Amino acid sequence: MCMIHLKIILAAIIKAEVEGSISEFRCATIFNLSISEQTIHPGNTVSLRCIATGNPSPRVTWYLDGTVIGRTSRISLGDYVTDHAHMVSFLNISETHMEDGGEYTCEVSNDVGSTSHSARLNVNGPAFVRSMPNVTAISSEDLMIRCPYGGYPIKAVPVV
After folding, report:
1. Residue 158 in contact with residue 128, Cβ under 8 Å?
2. In sequence order, what are the residues at sequence separation of 6 or more whose Cβ sits closer than 8 angstroms to the Cβ of residue 134?
3. How many CA atoms lie within 13 A of 8 on its CB side?
4. Which residues belong to any copy of the Ig-like domain (predicted)?
5. How many helices, marked H, and strands, marked E, lie in the chain?
6. Nearest to 67 by CA among 37, 107, 28
7. Is the pTM here over 0.85, yes or no?
């Protein structure tokens, strides 16, 4: 089993005593990331975790190549709160397919702000490119297009 670990601390509350009264202050987003690219074979099980703390409680959204990930028969999503008030969100994929490869993003947000971190999951197999939406460009403006791909190792990316 491969595990990608992401720890994010978001919008911590600091209580300060000011002239005998307690006041709450919201902090800027603080995050401590520990995540790396992983390479696996089709059929393996993968577990991705995102750990967050915040006030108000954070919401976590998982993405694969920019598309929100939902539950399927092979993908389970969930979360729980630890004894230390850390919200742990997980994404488990059983029996991975080549199409599960790509850039995974864990986005954590609450009313104070949001932050995210991404890492690639490479699944051994031939290269492929995911379908992309139409893009409109303005003449003389810079345009950056990300090509969502999968497969590993990449010798060449097929152009469709």
Report:
1. yes
2. none
3. 30
4. 28-122
5. 0, 14
6. 107
7. no
The per-residue DSSP string of 8-65 comes to EE-S-EEEEEETTEEEEEEPPPEEE-----EEE-TT--EEEEEEEE-SSPPEEEEEET
CA dihedral 13, 19, 21, 24 (to 10 degrees): -20
C-alpha distances in Å from residue 32, one per residue of 5, 15, 117, 130, 145 = 11, 22, 10, 31, 28
Q: Pick the more confident residue, 16 or 150.
A: 150
d(CA 149, CA 108): 24
Q: What is the pLDDT of residues 60-97, one digit of tens each?
A: 899 999 999 999 999 999 998 888 778 888 899 999 99
CA angle 145, 148, 152 (to 5 degrees): 135
